[in-house]
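Progress narrative, work stream C.
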Amino acid sequence: MEQLNLIFLLIGMLNFAGGIISIVSWFFIKRKYRKKPSLNGKEMVSIIIPSKGEINLKNFEEQEYKNYEIIVVVDNIEEKNKIENLKGKKTIVEISKNYEGCSGKNSALLAGIEKAKGEIFVFADDDIEPHPKWLKYLVSSLKNVSTTYRWYFKKPFLCVWNASVASVLFYKRFNFAWGGSTAIRREIFEKLNVREIWKKNWVDDLTLTKVLKENGIEIKFVPEAISESREEKKVLKWMNREFAWIRRYFPSLWRIALFFNLGMRISNVIGIFFIFIHPLIGFLLISPLLFDFFRGYQEYSTFVKLMEYPKEKFLSPLYHVFLRPIASFTISYNLISSIFTNKIEWKGKTYPIPEVSHQIKF
């Protein structure tokens, strides 16, 4: 029994140390990102948006950036006619080509690239509703590749879960080029032969991330460009899908996340029972859960400060404080569920998750 207590004491000490590191590291992140990028981009930009016809073009067309075009790529003439009636002078609408061996989204992106005139490509999802400075921030922060993320303002739990995932992008080693809003120089895109890679793959952003990391190209995260997004309807299914792709393309990262996240959650549950027998061991085992309350507030305060939205638009910080521990348990569920996810539904189409021949380690 004493040996078992010692083991749990050591695990608890590791849990506590990990929580302290997590909290302290966030202060360095806030310091690193406290200065906003200067808004001085002038290069020609092509925004390429795959769409099924549901898009708020006004947000894209009213950007505070002069030199850009918008290319919306749809599947058929009906969707094209629908968007033609809504578009302004900056937007052209193209019908996607059918590339065998890749997803509909990749086909649409490839069709848009063929028409693009810009020195910089910006790939965007049609469900984001970018604020007026979105493009300026993405381009002004661009060395080779810059990316940002989405935000949900209405549903509390979805917002908190999303914030916990977005926070990973601050850590250079673990960030990725999010397909919903990423800028890349045409020169880099062509040098890395991304066009041919996309023709043979189902997913856009993780294959792009993979080739960027293989070639040592930094992905710059731009929190100021984070944009509001339309909310998902099948939330848990969508969450599981996100982790399923990570499991296939970045298995080492997925395994690290599963080991630490699931390990902490199991120790949290054990700690609840232990606290009545050995209060110190119990406290140490549940400490990650307690640190999550503080981490939730850290994430809230950081994103409120950096994002281009008024503070009044955000949910109360109390949601972030009290829902953050639940988000951590949900991520464990997502990681486990992704093991059993072999098919992905996207925009009304179902795609199998293929085996990836070459997987990169983080």
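Work stream C, second folded protein:
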Amino acid sequence: MRIGSLALDAPFFQAGLAGYSDAAMRLVARRRGCTYAVTEAMLDQALLSDPRELASAEPDPCDHPLGGQLLGHSPEEMAAAARLMVDLGYDVVDVNLACPVKKVRGKSRGGHLLSAPDRALAILSAVRQAVGGDTPCTVKLRRGTDDSREAEANFRRILEGAISLGYAAATVHARTVSQGYAGPSDGSFLAGLAATYGAVPGFSLLGSGDVREASDAVAMLRRTGVAGVSVARGAIGNPWIFYQARALLAGDETGARELPSLAKQREAIEEHFELALRVHGERRAALRMRKIGLAYARFHPCPEEVSRAFREISSSADWQAVLDSHYCIERQAKRPSTFGKRPPSTASEGAPSQSSRTDA
């Protein structure tokens, strides 16, 4: 899979997902086969006006290659925020024109812009010019605001405009904005796009929607012809989905079906919480990790019992007690800190407040 000058060694990547896909989740996934990731959507105005948000947006040295996803409605502010992201060291700048959340659309951001193609194209143009030629730009889309002909015409105008502006890739979620996350995504729509735009030089069409298991990711790749697959909710509490998808794509069906052992589960959960502590501090990490713990619990032999225990967590001590009670294995050697230590790059070329984050 290519995104501009970035050559990635697998056609699967972690999507931005509000409230989940922070640096902790991304780093855990990278150690388990994730080659590329996109941040939660960040508000342009927050980055431009709040020094704390700007500081929290700085990528960890381990967290590369990384796309920084921007959300806004002003071409000028989006351009300025995009330039900040380049200065912070993001490898890719991603423009969110997809978010279906009502409060986002109500402020003329995200998926609302699919109904305002002139404004959407002005944003895409301003961001592309601000970023310059060395950093790839990408765009996140849904297949339209609804199922009307006008909505599809607007979508195509925006997509073709992005291509003409030199955008390296578009990730298309195969639901409409009005669907939200309900109902099935339309794989045939992605297949049609791949047939039309998949061979455009320097451009990659990426797919999104209903990827819950590794088999879903590989099926989307094979059935639609997209160049890569964005994994969103399927990666919550399941960082192994990336290794499994790689194995399945390589023909190793046994490896793809293998569930993580209790030891591997504990290793990932401990690692995730340790990283979350460093990102958020104890109180916020404990609360944030409750819901992620529930997702991890589905792999445990007693998922309901473990889920009940995770729901009661409010501190590091509580977290450790759950692990000691329900993941009773010989304690692994303490993993050294990875923050500030960059791993070998998966890209062959080109990589040189929470309140501002929202759903992609």
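The chain has 15 helices and twelve strands. No further action is required on this item.
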